[in-house]
Specification:
The complex is a heterodimer of chains A (373) and B (372). Chain A has 373 residues and is mainly alpha-helical. Chain A has a single domain, classed as Orthogonal Bundle (MetI-like fold). Chain A is built from 15 helices and no strands. Chain A has helices at 2-6, 15-34, 39-65, 84-96, 104-122, 129-137, 139-149, 165-192, 196-211, 214-228, 237-263, 266-274, 279-309, 321-329, 338-372. In chain A, helix 8 (165-192) runs antiparallel to helix 9 and helix 9 packs across helix 11. Chain A is globular. With 372 residues, chain B is of the alpha+beta class. Among the domains of chain B are: 68-160 and 235-249 and 298-357, MetI-like (MetI-like fold, Orthogonal Bundle); 163-220, no CATH class. Chain B has helices spanning 5-37, 68-101, 106-120, 124-135, 170-189, 203-215, 237-264, 267-275, 280-310, 322-334, 337-366; strands spanning 146-148, 152-155, 158-161, 163-166, 191-192, 195-196, 216-220, 223-225, 228-230, 233-235. The chains are: A mainly alpha (373), B alpha+beta (372). The interface between A and B is large, with 54 and 56 residues.
Chain lengths: 373, 372
């Protein structure tokens, strides 16, 4: 602290030069403190700088300065770096899958609707925020479903086998999250229930799905489920996969919700009971709203994990973003562009997941501040 | 209607359980119908049938004449192999990155942060396929193998590691070496005539290495013979990609566990340690780390379980693990959906239960005694 006072500007010929040298000194002090505060740290800093000097320019050269973006065939890629032409040309397939190009505006409109419903539901201080959340989970899926499937109001029918790309990842994760939340709440209550039968069934359900890989349910939905349906009844492949994912994810959601329910003081429940409020109303009006606030970060974590895991549908033959990239790479006209394709997929997922977890962290901070009062 | 809430709840429970039973019966009768139409009966007898296919990578002998049951054993061993390799590597990566995150060096700290954020926010499947298709498949052929340190060769067919060849006494000496390694953590706690062995126990692992080296007759180094590599042990690209993907991904999560556990050791503990004059290094090794390590055990357990479950993604790169071989090839050849999935789920549940039982037992032993 005493050093700070020595930096105080002395009347000099050029005040700008003084402030520049002061900031230079500040910078030197910061460097000394944060990078060179001991011989060991100085060595580490130099080693890290050497490493970055080797990696960063090469990465920049590959991804930007030596890369090609414009053109319409592999022949347009004449430089040493990445051939982004491939990604640019295939972008519609990566985003919409085989959705008919003339109908792709419907996907964009559905996405705009998602943003329109999600922003008021996620922002602090929206009037009637709870209503927006309910609309996001009920009205929006209905509208988006009609829009995407079509067959009504003059919209041509689009079979789900044509859906693909990033759109499929978003659809699957939204449906799964929206479907597994209510089921997870029921399971969490089931696990806390005093009724031995319900408790046992809930615990068995939750622990069974948490103990096996996600791939199990996807394989089951693909090969096992048709066996359990009456003969002649067939269910759409995408619908089957989403149903299985809802059940699987509900087990994880149940544990998140259970944590939230345990976080609500038992006095809250007792107070409501002493006012003569019935069990159902105590839960829906007193306990659940408080629990939900606690578990929002947990739900977002689950959503991020789950959004990443939607890539697994590739293994059972649905063509999400990763599947679309896999397929595009098999095209003889674009052979050998695997790094570009997978780096693109990774970047898309990174942006989505990073944004979601950043929102989760900011919510958590606000929550912590709110409880600190 | 029934007025007493407790009785009402009990009736609701029975209605629910009956509904579940009804649904189960409905599904079972559908399955029985469908199986009947295919002239199949439920049963595990098919496991003794001849497999008629080959498994490219295996730890025990397997040929097309062997049974499905042996194929199952082969792929369970493969799953366990990649899981064990992944757990070791992920723990090492996690410790390294976690310590980077705790460094007082700004650059090192933030490089750790960039690693964690980049890896955590990209799907593990994209990473595994990236390593497999974009990296390992773009390597040169055997004749232009890359020469890595320690005599390791790397080419499009995977890693080739040098392998020690045991001499006539090799088996005996390496068994003794293994016994010494297992005994050393116990020896550290041993007291003989009132004196603790303590650091003397460190001699045991050294002795074990020496003993093992004594039994080695020669080293079988991989080298180019004609168009292929001969000698050494091959690590196929499928295994290498899956291993890399699992350890790099889980390593990022373990790094966060390491960081948060160390930071969760209360500041009072550090201050107390400093105030009795401990050096910074000793504060870390005697006060902070012992407490942090204990806190790490439960979250680490669930990371290990996640890693084991994620090893099923080997199916995407054709690594012969349970999903690729048993829920894939065997299921397609035998047409036994129900039995296959029952076995797959039973295997994963028992692996998971044994790992968490072992980790919980360990946790009970090292757990700090805190208020409740």
């Amino acid at each position: 602290m005493s050093e700070v006072s020595t930096v105080a500007p002395v009347a000099g010929p050029d005040p700008r030069a003084t402030s520049a040298s002061a900031s230079l000194r500040r910078m030197a002090r910061w460097l000394r403190r944060n990078l060179f505060n001991s011989p060991g740290n100085s060595f580490l800093t130099v080693a890290a700088l050497v490493f970055l000097a080797l990696v960063l320019p090469a990465a920049w050269e590959w991804a930007v300065s030596q890369a090609d973006l414009w053109g319409d065939s592999k022949g347009a890629c004449i430089d040493q770096g990445a051939c982004w032409v491939f990604v640019r040309v295939r972008l519609p397939v990566f985003i919409f899958g085989q959705y008919p190009p003339s109908q792709q505006w419907r996907v964009l409109l559905a996405f705009a609707l998602l943003v329109g419903f999600a922003v008021p539901a996620l922002r602090d201080g929206t009037p009637h925020r709870a209503l927006w959340v309910v609309l996001l989970l009920t009205l929006f899926p209905l509208l988006a479903g009609l829009l995407l499937v079509g067959g009504v109001a003059g919209l041509p029918f689009v079979d789900t086998t044509l859906w693909g790309g990033l759109m499929l990842d978003v659809v699957i994760s939204f449906v799964t999250m929206a479907g597994s939340l209510p089921l997870g709440v029921l399971l969490a209550y089931g696990r806390r229930s005093q009724l031995a039968g319900i408790r046992t069934v809930s615990i068995a359900f939750i622990e069974l799905w948490r103990g096996v890989p996600l791939l199990t349910v996807l394989f089951m939905a693909a090969v096992l489920l048709p066996l359990f349906l009456p003969s002649g009844v067939t269910v759409d492949r995408l619908l089957r996969a989403m149903g299985a994912l809802v059940l699987f994810n509900a087990a994880y959601m149940a544990e998140v919700v259970r944590g939230g329910l345990q976080g609500v003081d038992v006095e809250q429940e007792e107070a409501a009971q002493s006012l003569g409020i019935g069990w159902l109303q105590t839960q829906t009006l007193v306990v659940l709203p408080q629990a939900m606030r606690i578990i929002v970060p947990g739900i977002i974590n689950t959503a991020v994990d789950f959004f990443k895991d939607t890539t697994l549908v590739t293994i059972v033959g649905l063509s999400d973003l990763l599947g679309a990239v896999n397929q595009a790479l098999k095209d003889p006209a674009w052979l050998g562009l695997a790094p570009e394709g997978y780096v693109f997929a990774a970047v898309v997922f990174f942006v989505c997941c990073f944004a979601m977890s950043a929102y989760g962290r900011s919510f958590e901070r606000r929550l912590a501040r709110g409880q600190g009062r | 209607m029934v007025r007493r809430p407790s009785r009402r709840a009990r009736i609701a429970q029975w209605v629910f359980l009956l509904a579940m039973l009804g649904a189960a019966l409905f599904l079972a009768s559908n399955a029985a119908d469908n199986l009947g139409r295919r002239h199949l009966a439920f049963g595990f007898g098919y496991l003794v049938n001849t497999a008629n296919f080959d498994i490219p990578f295996r730890l025990i002998d397997f040929g097309p004449d062997d049974s499905y049951a042996r194929a199952l054993l082969v792929c369970v061993l493969n799953t366990l192999l990649v899981s064990a390799m992944g757990i070791v590597a992920a723990t090492l990566i996690g410790l390294l990155i976690g310590l980077m995150r705790l460094s007082s060096n700004w650059l090192i700290r933030n490089m750790g942060l960039v690693y964690i954020e980049l890896v955590r926010n990209t799907p593990i499947l994209v990473q595994i396929i990236f390593w497999y298709v974009a990296v390992l498949h773009n390597l040169p052929g055997p004749r232009q193998s890359l020469h890595l340190p320690a005599g390791i060769l790397l080419n499009v067919r995977g890693f080739y590691l040098p392998m020690p060849v045991l001499g006539p006494w090799g088996t005996v000496t390496s068994l003794f070496a293994l016994a010494l390694l297992v005994a050393s953590p116990f020896a550290a706690r041993l007291t003989i005539a009132g004196k603790s062995l303590g650091k003397l126990a460190l001699a045991l692992p050294v002795l074990a290495v020496l003993l093992f080296a004594l039994g080695v007759e020669s080293i079988d180094a991989p080298s180019l013979k004609g168009f292929n590599i001969s000698g050494g042990v091959q690590l196929p690209p499928e295994l290498a990609a899956l291993w890399a993907g699992l350890s790099i991904y889980s390593g990022a999560f373990i790094a966060e566990i390491v960081r948060s556990s160390v930071q969760a050791v209360s500041e009072g503990q550090r201050e107390a340690a400093r105030s009795i004059g401990l050096k910074p290094r000793l504060v870390l090794s005697l006060v902070v780390m012992p407490q942090a390590l204990r806190m790490m055990v439960p979250p680490l357990t669930s990371q290990y379980l996640n890693l084991i479950k994620s090893s099923s993604l080997g199916a995407a790169v054709a690594y012969p693990e349970i999903f690729q071989i048993f829920a894939g090839t065997v299921l397609n050849k035998s047409g036994r959906e129900i039995e296959t999935f029952a076995i797959v789920m039973a295997i994963f549940l028992s692996i998971n239960l044994s790992v968490s039982a072992a980790m919980n037992a360990y946790n009970r032993r090292v757990m700090l005694v805190t208020a409740r």
